[in-house]
Amino acid sequence: MQNAEQRRLELQRKKQKLAELKSIRQKDEESRVQNLLRTNENGAAQNGASHRQTLSSEQMEEILREVGISAEPTIREESPAPPRGAHAENHLNPMSASASNPRISSLLSVDLEFSTVQTASTDNKDSAIYSKGTQTDDERISVGEFSLGSQEFDYDDDMIMPVDHGQFRGRAHSHDQDSPLPYNEEIAKLLGQAKHVDKALQRQDTEEKKSTHVQTVQPLSEEERNRLTLDPEFLDSFNRSCKVIGRALNEDIDIFINYTKDPYEKAVASDDLLHLAQVYYDETWTAKRLVTGMAFSEHHPDLLAVSYGPCDVPNEPPGVIVVWNTKSKRITAEFIVYCQSEIQSVAFARFHAHLLLAGCESGQICVWDNRLTSRKLPINRSPLTTQAHTQPVSCLAVVGTKNAHNFVSLSRDGRICSWNVDNLTQPVDGKELMTKEGKPASATRMSFPIGEMQTFVVGTDTGEILAASRNGADPAVIKTDVCYKGHSGTLTGIEFHRASGVVDFSHLFISSSHDWTIKLWSTKDANLKFSFESHPDLVLDVAWSPVHPAVFASIDADGNIFVWNLNEDVEGPVARLRAGAEGDTVYMNKLIWSADGKHVFVGDDEGRVHMYDVRESLYVLKSEEWNRFARVLSDMKESNEEAEKYNIFSIHISIIAYFPPLLPLNFISDVKRGNWCQSNYFV
């Protein structure tokens, strides 16, 4: 408002100045006319000729001849009434008109002179129309309310001067008079200033229009910043935006890819089947923590949930789960949650895309919702009752279909509970797993076949593998159907075959143990079993490839990672890699494959998750891989049968050789028939 008031006062001063100049000019014109009249009466023409340059008659005639005018006019004697075209002829030939008119002929003696002409040019502007819109707080007030292009001066530059005493001036221009130079210069100066002011206002108007589109951001106060940082919706939006930008900046596109190149060329030429691609680690949340569990999301296959054990730092939560984005080239933690108990196992809810499940050392089941990014603690947890778990929950599994599924948990005391994910107040059912001898099983690992939700296998501390079914007559006890014996140490890993193809291998499962061995089993054929004994230390985990029927991976306590391909070699791994620097021992604890079979993830005791790329030949399959693996299994079965016969025959020979005088004939015949162990005479 103050700027508008100043512009209004400035415009009033300019108007007043122009009005004063106009009145001065009018007075000058009136005085000039009066002076001319007086000089004509007093013979001012003769006085003026003394100080002005005059032309002689010869010079005048020469000038007229140059422009094509005759010096001797033709005079018409009889023409009392001029014809209709006389006006045009007189206009064309003024000398003839002057001869016929004695008044004009008396005025022909005119003294010509040179005069200095003062000129000033102004730009033509459109007339501005006054409206209510001009009475706003806009800087265009000055242009709209008062524009030099819209002002009309109330005088003419051309004036007809009076004629007296034989002097003819005709239409005299105002610049031909003795107008003072300061007056003309002042007008020109004022007009130039107005022109510059107009341009400056136009530039200011343009800058103001631009500035209206660019909004200046005012810094937030301390109170506003604190309020924003405590707003869950703002934090959720901010974190999501940061993740989106991070993914965009870290997107890796190979612009030199050659689609005409054989994809197997590099893999065949390379001797390395495993290549370390990434290490997922967070100094704040995962440092010095043991990796206790890993699980991939079926809805988002690039998300890997990793559970970590306690650390030695005081006031830190004992159980932490970090969800890593394995697709991003940048190490990105999508979600971080924790609880006040050590976490032993982790799983994604298969049919609830946003739920994350965990089994705790205290025996509780905890649930998080990753949509609530600002909440780190569980949204739901099971109670500590005898109906649920009272021992550490070592395994979790979500089995069944979308319309009929169960969330199953297994604790170290052999108790198996089924839960409804939406309600953890109490389990749907809870049963105790018993061995064939009727003793409680000390369970460590559990696995369900693909597409099965009733039958399962459980590994124990004693090395036995128990096969059972959740559907039993007893509502409180699950009795073991089959017991697989072969390991002599605690079971550390067990998993059913995961790859699906033209041949069904879902009856196969593998197990790892502290006895340094890996064993292959079948739920359909008890004679099909095989032992792999290449590890130099405790085997801590084993996992099937999700795409290749004959490939699995294993890790041991010495930091070795083995990749096995039974179609290539049944005696040893086709690839082996030692984690860590040379001379360092990394304690590998957990192993998992990515859903596409292209990566192997291994967790250690320092809070690191190592991602290894595998060779294309291990996940890009040929059609004969399935039939080839079936033949390999058949050969392994025959080898086991032959080895068993050879062992029995050796025992037969040893018994007959050492105890022939003491053995009756019927015992010897039983031994030869192969049923020596069923003989009543065997001691």
TrEMBL record:
<feature type="compositionally biased region" description="Polar residues">
    <location>
        <begin position="33"/>
        <end position="56"/>
    </location>
</feature>
<dbReference type="InterPro" id="IPR036322">
    <property type="entry name" value="WD40_repeat_dom_sf"/>
</dbReference>
<protein>
    <recommendedName>
        <fullName>Protein CBR-DYCI-1</fullName>
    </recommendedName>
</protein>
<dbReference type="InterPro" id="IPR015943">
    <property type="entry name" value="WD40/YVTN_repeat-like_dom_sf"/>
</dbReference>
<keyword id="KW-0963">Cytoplasm</keyword>
<feature type="compositionally biased region" description="Basic and acidic residues">
    <location>
        <begin position="22"/>
        <end position="32"/>
    </location>
</feature>
<dbReference type="GO" id="GO:0005737">
    <property type="term" value="C:cytoplasm"/>
</dbReference>
<keyword id="KW-0853">WD repeat</keyword>
<dbReference type="InterPro" id="IPR001680">
    <property type="entry name" value="WD40_rpt"/>
</dbReference>
<feature type="repeat" description="WD">
    <location>
        <begin position="484"/>
        <end position="531"/>
    </location>
</feature>
<feature type="repeat" description="WD">
    <location>
        <begin position="532"/>
        <end position="567"/>
    </location>
</feature>
<feature type="region of interest" description="Disordered">
    <location>
        <begin position="70"/>
        <end position="101"/>
    </location>
</feature>
<keyword id="KW-0677">Repeat</keyword>
<dbReference type="Pfam" id="PF00400">
    <property type="entry name" value="WD40"/>
</dbReference>
<feature type="region of interest" description="Disordered">
    <location>
        <begin position="22"/>
        <end position="56"/>
    </location>
</feature>
<dbReference type="InterPro" id="IPR050687">
    <property type="entry name" value="Dynein_IC"/>
</dbReference>
